[in-house]
Amino acid sequence: MEQQQKTGKNGKILRHLMTPLDFSVDELNKLFDLAEDIKNNPDKYAEVCKRKKLATCFYEPSTRTRLSFETAMLNLGGQVIGFSDAKSSSASKGESVSDTIRVISCFADICAMRHPKEGAPMVAAERSRIPVINAGDGGHQHPTQTLTDMMTIRSLKGKLSGFTIGICGDLKFGRTVHSLVNAMLRYPDNKYIFISPEELRIPSYLREKLNEMHVEFEEVERLEESLPKLDLLYMTRVQRERFFNEEDYVRLKDFYVLNKEKMALAGPDMLVLHPLPRVNEISVDVDDDPRAVYFEQVQFGVYVRMALIMTLLGLAE
Ligand code: NCD
Q1: What is the CA(267)–ligand 1 centre distance, in A?
Q2: Would you tell me the crossing angle of helices 204-212 and 175-184 to the nearest 10 degrees?
Q3: pLDDT tens digit string along 207-237?
Q4: What is the pLDDT of residue 86?
Q5: Quick one: which H or E segment has residue 32?
Q6: Which residue in 234, 170, 227, 232 sits closest to 203, CA to CA?
Q7: Which atom of ligand 1 is least distant from the CA of 148?
Q8: CB–CB of 92/117 below 8 Å?
Q9: What pTM does this model have?
Q10: What is the Å distance from ligand 1's center to 63 Cα?
């Protein structure tokens, strides 16, 4: 997205994060380097955001993302305000996100917003005097989960290219999938195997983009056959809240269950990632496998959000 050069209330150029493509590859590399430094030297950053406030405006349920943002800001010595339920905010009285963000701009220095409507954080960003971070908008994008996923891969594999990446589950409604594929397409020599039931295949715009870019990809239904070929397996939950009827959800929810037997088909270095929450798609007997890195991934999310907050507040230099 082309962002207009506006000045924020801190007098610095106002930048938002709506999709992972809002950052160039170069900027992403800097962000990941900073996140690595934060991971290795947390004390150095303990007061960087002193007297700064993060507002978390969550119109949709969340555990990880909201608490990860809050932890990130607290780790930087800042403070946190916000709401975690649309019902407890003025949205329940009919306030628009544009008005809400104008109000929040008077209180906080940066805002992380999650909304069930696609594009809502972007509408807010247009009216905001503080950086707005899209913390998930409907089935659309989830850029900070993607930063988390990429930092996990980069940190554990040392690179972001040259992989065969399996993405399994709800590829239609899963916003983490859409953001991750969009972002990883900028790194060369990755092949994709999209593993989903027919009804939950990747959206056609993504398929068109892959074709236009001449990226190697397959769309398959069976996880077992793909497992031996993968360097990375990104599992996702079937997104119940985005289904139009419960019957379809019930039919598809247990389509994939990664378990110990299936893990035996995978190579010794394949990493299993998952944005969480997990429902049934990964059996708990996989959790102790050293290739299962989904809880480690949560920890990387805090470092990368710390780096992001610093970057958007102009405190990263
Ligand atoms: C994801 C989300 O909210 O899109 N979770 C997260 O933020 N870690 C994935 C999901 O809900 O399935």
Answers
A1: 27
A2: 10
A3: 999 999 999 999 999 999 999 999 999 999 9
A4: 86
A5: helix 25-40
A6: 170
A7: 8
A8: no
A9: 0.95
A10: 9
| Nearest CA owner, ligand 1 atom 1 | 275
Q: Enumerate the active-site residues.
A: 64-65, 93, 114, 142
CB-ligand 1 contact for 178 (6 Å cutoff): no
Mean pLDDT along residues 28-48: 98
The residue behind tokens 């690595």 is 36
Say yes or no: CB of residue 276 within 6 Å of ligand 1.
yes
Q: Strand ranges (DSSP E) for 39-149?
A: 53-58, 79-83, 110-115, 132-137
Q: Is 24 helix (H, G, I), strand (E, B) or coil?
A: coil
Burial (Cβ within 10 Å: 0-12, 13-18, ≥19) of residue 187: middle
Which domains does the chain carry? Answer: 20-141+301-312 (3.40.50.1370), 144-298 (3.40.50.1370)
What pLDDT, on the 0 to 100 scale, is given for residue 4? Answer: 55
- pLDDT for 55 beyond 90: yes
Q: Measured from the CB, is residue 301 less than 6 Å from ligand 1?
A: no
Mean pLDDT of 99-116: 97
Q: How confident is the model at residue 91 (pLDDT cuts 50, 70, 90)?
A: confident
**Residue 176 alpha carbon to ligand 1 centre in Å:** 7
Residue 115, ligand 1, Cβ within 6 A: no
Q: Quick check: CB of 146 below 6 Å from ligand 1?
A: no
Does ligand 1 have an atom closer than 6 angstroms to the CB of 64? yes
Both structure tokens of 125: 């960003």
pLDDT for residue 241 = 87
